[in-house]
Structure formats: structure tokens, C-alpha cells
Write a structure and sequence with these properties.
The chain has a domain of 109 residues: T-fold, CATH 1.10.3980. The longest helix has 19 residues. It is of the alpha+beta class. The protein has 9 helices and 17 strands. It has an 8-stranded antiparallel beta sheet. Strands 1-2-10-11 form a 4-stranded antiparallel beta sheet, with no helix packed on it. The chain has a 3-stranded antiparallel beta sheet with strand order 5-7-6, covered by helices on one side. Helix 1 runs antiparallel to helix 6, helix 3 runs parallel beside helix 7 and helix 7 packs antiparallel against helix 8.
Length: 348
């Protein structure tokens, strides 16, 4: 098998495109591949058994769907539904769509199960450290600034209200700033999967940033496979290969989205408990779940917790988790039993 790796996001995951060595290129089935940009990252759709004449129609529908998702969840667009909620200082219930309600409900559920490590109210801290719409700081924030930002956070200050077919968000801190970027890629990937089904397509791999969903078999009649990258920003080296079998996968890591300030590498992953970028040795957390939204929420929470606490949560919740930890000059790997069943070659 001649394996090729195709980057399907900014972090952590690679799509595998391979062909049998005995087959000539002319005889190898080719997927229809579409690509574009959204949410500050890239999207990719690979479908099998679909006529190439549908390419432009599908591309337009995919982009339109992702543009709509961006108008819902973006913190970079001042007129997005989320930005309007953030800009409001009202503590009254704020009407939102069912989609927004679902994303926040899932975020609050995972936040509770990670003891607040996955916290979508951490936006003020994300912005303070220069990983939001604001520019990077030229000096580290002071402890007073961090304390002031932390005072505007906390999952206990946010709730979702569902009544009579209507949904609302309510905050009890006027300055609360919700950042759903930790869930946005997973939400969008699930949305693309539903779009493919609506279009009568049953064999696909869709990805938005570091979140991927697959269904059916690829163009060669084999399982869609995804590779987990080794934790380096210099090469597309493969750490492990998984067969998603209709599930979603997402990876969070501290080795791609960062900047250096005063000689220190600062990760975009902020610990809500300290208000600082994480400092522990866990560098990558990959989660496979029934939906990409769920995987996208869990991977961030586990990254914040660090290796030992992440393992404890994975074991308690029965999660399919793959952790990579920096150890001296190399790395160590831990995977849950649930994750092992997804490794390519483990199923017979």
C-alpha cells in the first residue's frame, strides 16, 4: 500500500489517501474532493461514488452551510449571534436558536464532567492572552489583569433555558464573554455530515479544522482512515492510524497554536483555574465520540486537565481517548481501551 497523507486541519489529524501498489493510477477509484476556508481554518470534503459533475453544486452548498455556522458561532464577526449575546450587558434570558442552545448545553455538560476545565466562558482570558479577536500582547498580562478577567468567567454564571419550544441563554455576569471556538469545528463537521446525508451521499469524510466525521467506505471500498500526527510543528509524521467507523474525532494540542513572549512559548489552551496558558507536559489529546461536537468538547477539557487527570476522566466516563505526553527528549502515549478498538488493524 502506497500511503499518502493529506492534512485535513490545522492541528493533529491527517486523512490517509492510499492506493494498492498493484493497481495502475487509471484503474484506481478516485474520491471527489472539495476544499475551502471557514472559521479561520480549512474544511475538506471527500465523497465516494458521486459524479464529478456535482462538484460545484456541492461546494456551494458546503460553503453556504459553513458560512451560516460562522454567522452563528463566530467571535470575530461583530454581527454573529454569539457576538450579539456577548455584547449585550443584559442578564435577562436572551433568545437563541435551537442550534446555539444545543452547542452550549453540550459545552456545559462536558464542563461539569471535567470539573470546569472545559469552560466556554473563558473568553475574557483567551482575549487577554491574545488568542481571540484582540491582538497578541507585547508584555504578559499582570496578575491583576488576569484576576479581573477571571472574575468575568465561570460556568455557574451561564445557563440554557428551554421552554415551550423556545430557547434562551442567560448570564448573571453582564461582562461575560462566551467563546465557542472549542466546539465550533466539531459542530460544523457534524453539520457537514448531515448535509451529505441530505444530499443522498452515504460515503464521505468531512473535516473542519481538527474535527473529522466519516461514514461508509472510501472510493476503494475500504474504511476511511485518519492519522493522528506526531506532536511536532515541522512535519506530517504519523503517530497512529484509526478507522472511525462512522464516528467523529477531534484533537486538541499545545504544539501548533502558540506564540512566544519573553522567551516563553505560550499555548492557546488556557486553564480556567489559573487564568494562564497550560504549563503541563500533555501536548495532545485526541477523542473519538459519536459526534464531532462531543469529541471537540472533550479534547479541550482533557488538554487543560493534564495527563493524569485526563486519564481519570477518560476511565470514569468510558471515553475513547489517546494522549501524547512530553517525556524528556521524547514522548509517551496512553490510550483508553475504548480508543484501542478504533486503531487500524485492531478489528478483525
Amino acid at each position: 500500500m502506497d500511503i499518502k497523507y493529506v492534512c485535513c486541519g490545522l492541528l493533529g489529524l491527517l486523512m490517509l489517501a492510499g492506493c494498492d501498489d498493484s493497481a495502475s493510477p487509471a484503474n484506481v477509484a478516485k474520491p471527489l474532493v472539495l476544499e475551502g476556508k471557514t472559521m479561520g481554518t480549512f474544511w475538506r470534503v471527500s465523497v465516494a461514488g458521486v459524479d464529478a459533475g456535482r462538484a460545484e453544486e456541492l461546494r456551494q452548498k458546503v460553503q453556504a452551510q459553513l458560512d451560516a455556522d460562522d454567522r452563528l458561532l463566530s467571535t470575530y464577526k461583530a454581527d454573529s449571534a454569539l457576538s450579539r449575546f456577548n455584547q449585550s450587558r443584559s442578564t435577562d434570558p436572551w433568545p437563541v436558536s435551537e442550534a446555539m442552545s444545543d452547542v452550549v448545553t453540550e459545552a456545559l455538560r462536558i464542563g461539569a464532567k471535567t470539573d470546569g476545565a472545559m469552560d466556554v466562558t473563558v473568553g475574557p482570558l483567551v482575549n487577554l492572552w491574545g488568542f481571540g479577536p484582540d491582538k497578541q500582547p507585547v508584555t504578559p498580562p499582570s496578575e491583576a489583569q488576569i484576576a479581573a478577567a477571571r472574575a468575568k468567567t465561570g460556568l455557574q454564571h451561564l445557563k440554557v433555558i428551554n421552554a415551550a419550544g423556545q430557547q434562551w441563554l442567560q448570564k448573571d455576569l453582564p461582562d461575560m464573554y462566551i467563546d465557542l471556538s472549542t466546539m465550533g469545528e466539531g459542530y460544523a463537521a457534524d453539520h457537514l455530515a448531515r448535509l451529505m446525508t441530505q444530499q443522498g451521499i452515504s460515503r464521505y469524510l468531512v473535516s473542519v479544522g481538527g474535527a473529522v466525521v466519516t461514514r461508509g467506505l472510501n472510493a476503494e471500498g475500504k474504511p476511511w482512515r485518519v492519522a493522528i500526527q506526531k506532536p511536532t510543528d515541522r512535519e506530517n509524521a504519523v503517530q497512529a492510524i484509526v478507522d472511525l467507523n462512522g464516528h467523529g474525532i477531534s484533537t486538541a494540542g499545545s504544539y501548533r497554536n502558540y506564540y512566544e513572549l519573553d522567551g516563553k512559548r505560550l499555548s492557546h489552551v488556557i486553564d480556567p483555574a489559573t487564568g494562564h496558558p497550560i504549563q503541563h507536559k500533555l501536548v495532545s489529546a485526541t477523542v473519538i465520540a459519536p459526534t464531532a461536537l462531543e469529541a471537540d468538547g472533550w479534547d479541550t477539557g482533557l488538554m487543560v486537565l493534564g495527563t493524569e487527570k485526563a486519564r481519570q476522566v477518560a476511565e470514569k466516563e468510558g471515553l475513547a481517548v489517546y494522549l501524547i505526553t512530553k517525556e524528556g527528549d521524547g514522548f509517551s502515549v496512553w490510550m483508553s481501551p475504548q480508543f484501542k478498538t478504533f486503531l487500524a488493524g485492531e478489528r478483525n
